[in-house]
Every structure is written in structure tokens, then in C-alpha cells.
Fold this sequence. Notes:
Elements: E1 4-7, E2 23-28, H1 32-47, H2 51-58, H3 65-93, H4 98-108, H5 110-120, H6 123-186, H7 203-231, H8 236-287, H9 299-334, E3 341-344, E4 350-354, E5 357-360, H10 364-384, E6 391-394, H11 396-399, H12 403-416, E7 422-426, H13 429-434, E8 441-447, E9 453-459
Parallel strand pairs: 2-7, 2-8, 6-7
Antiparallel strand pairs: 1-9, 3-4, 4-5, 8-9
Amino acid sequence: MDSVDAGITGTGHEPLDLQLGSGLTALVGGDGPLRAEVMELFARRLSEEDERLQTLIAGPGPVGPALAWRRAVRILAQWLGLEGVDKEVATLVRGGSKADEHSLRSDSGVEGLRARVEALRRLPEALRVKARELRGLRGDSVEVGGDLEVANMDWLRERQDAETHLLAYRDRARELKLRLGQLEKGGSETECPTCDRVLDDKFDSVLEVLREEWESVVQDGSWWKRRRDQLNPKPLHLQNLEGKSIRLHATIDECTEEVERLRARLPELTEAEDTLAMAQVVEGPSKSREGTDPGTLSEDSDLRRRALHALRRELLSDAHDALTARTGRYLNHLTSGGVLGVGLTGDGEPTIVRDEGARRMHSDEEVAAYLFALRLALADLAADSDVRVPELLIGDTFDRLEPDAKLRAVGLLRTLLARAPRILLFCRGEILDAIPERFDWIVELSVDRKGLPFARLRQSGVGRLRIH
């Protein structure tokens, strides 16, 4: 199949307007900022507006293993029925009069919790915006750093060139002056410095030629001295570039601190959502009926409250157990048996289980493998829960895997095609060189003349040869 060029932005096309078929697609090429921009475009197109599908399809965002795990458990529990439990709780809370309900929520703090949750739900978007700004600043810093390096090298080269020329002219002027002195001292009986013959009647003409050459050398040397003195201080444009680079680094530091601060607050969202749901389950049914005849608060209502509470814990426990087993299985396959399973510490920090026992993840490669396995496990379990998984978008976690693990990861993604018919994988060229037959489509990313992201589509896969 011939390659097909398709613009991604600035052309009126949607990011996935590439007529991709089902299968595993490799997205390759482009630098860091370009890949980040294209991935954001794809993620927006794929995840639509459902936060759960966004986490499933485009990943949980720039978060650590603990928050990614808690989000995955909560999402799976919602697919298993937790969402219905929460709706039932909301119905019970609305059972009382609006006035009583308002009073109850104000008194019990539920309204305050709800307001806090709404405020915290703005954190992921704020983090994405700030992370995008940070990527842009880093791209600008790289560009300015390159310009600064080029300008600095040009300046140093010109200054060194002027210094070299000046020294050469000084040496030549010194040599000519010495010869002139020897000629003037010896007179017409002096031997020619070139042919060793007595100058005699040619003395005056040779002396004049040497004197003119000496004066020319001195004049040229004076020019190179002025040129060297002119290049000694840094040029203004180089100073401006240095100042811009320093300001960019300071801005990057501030932006990085803000990103880390927002990322550190992300666990507050899940905790606040859990606290709000528990408060509604425990307090909603009983307190929403305050002010009525005590005889109407039946034992049935209390049993219903306790049943909802128990059901919620059971759903979260089932989601936890299912994700633990499935993530451990994928991680075991990804590490070729090196990791036996996964677990949690007492404070909710994910662990990996090896022959020597359970421990926290130490390296970036271990974290990447864990997050990759968790994504695949959630997609797998979503299909078990009758949740349609149309597409998956795999990004930087794959890039951070060890080389051998990347090959096994591609194999796992192919087995997952039965669950998610279309999988897009951001990867490097060496993966395609190693196993091109494992991919169905290849999208090469580049930049057009206007600096806009551009994609070239090629079909891949296993070929078929028929011999007649």
C-alpha cells in the first residue's frame, strides 16, 4: 500500500482522520514536543468527555503508581456497580424535604465535601495545562540553548581567528623589521637574504620593497588588533541570548514546582470522592428523615443503609482483587517471570512481588512496567464488565520499558486486540526495525513547512508470498 499523507492540525482534519483500520498502529518520529502535542490531540479525540474512558484509553496522566492504582480500582468498581450504589445513595439523600436536606448537608459537612470535590476535580485539567506549558518552555529552552551555543561558538571562533591573524602579522612585522635593520647596517655590501649574492646597485630597491612590505604588514596587523579588541567583550545579541536562557530556566523551575505541587495534590481528589461517597452512604438515609415521626424510621431503612455500605466495600474489594490478579499476570509476562505479582503496603503504596518477597518499586523501568501492566489489566477487565473499549493509546510508559520488555509488550498488545480492536502505540524506530511484522499500521510523524504536525500513513503487517 502506498503511503498516505494527512495533516493533523491546521487542515480541518481531526487527529484520527487517517482512515486507520483495526489492529496495532505504531506512531513514530518527531521530537519530544511534537510527540507530546500529537499525543494530546489523539487523547482528546479518543477519550471524548468520559473521565473513566479517558483514563482507560489515554492513560491516567502524569501520576505515580499509587494514584494510578486507586483510580483504576475506583473506575473498575464503578463498572462493577459502584455507580449504581452511589446513585441509590443520592436518591435516598434526596428523599427528605429540600429544606431539611439543605440543613442536614450543612450540618453534616456533606455540602462542604461536595464543594471540595468539585474544586479538586479541576486539578487534573490544571495539571495538564501546566504540564503542557512546561513542555513548551522546555522546548523554547532547547531552542534558545541551541541558538546560544551557535552564537557563542561563532563569537569564540571569530575572536580566535582575529587573535591568530594578529600574532601572525606581529611575527611577520618583527621578521621584516629585523631584515631592514640588517640591510641598513650592512649597506650595499650586504648579501641578499634570498639568493645570498651581494646586493650592490640593487640595494636601494630591495630596501624599498622590504620597507613597503613592513609598513603594509604593520597596517594590516593594526586592523586585526582593532578587530580583536572589538571582539573581546561579548556581542550584544549573545548577551541577550544568555539573559533569555537564564530567564527561561528560572521560569521552568517555577513551572516545574507548580506541576509537582499540583501532582502532589491529585491523591486528595480520590480521597475526597471516597469520603463524600461514604458520608452519603452512612449519613444520608437516616439523617434525611430527621424531623419526621420516629416511628416511621423503620428497621428496613437502617438495614438498607448498612446493606449499601457493605455492598460498596464489597465492590471496591472485588475491583481490588481482580486488578491485583490481572495486573500481576500481565507484569509477570512482561518481565518474563521476574515479577511474580503485585500488592499494596499498609499505606496504600503499590509493591511488586519477586522471589525475595514484596517490595516497593525502585527504578523508573519498574514503575513504567507496572503502569503499563495496570493499563492492560484495566482494559481487559473493562471488556469483562461489558464496557466497550474501542481504542487504546499507549505513550511514554512504553518508551521507559527495558528493551526486552518492549518486545514482550508488543506481543501483549496484540493479544489485547481481541478486547480493544484499535491500539495506537507511540514508539521508537528500533522497535519497528526489530519486529515490523507485529504492527498493522505505521504513522510517521513529522512537521510540515509551516511547522505544523504532519502524519504519513503506511500499512504494515505480515506479507503473503504466493509462488506459481
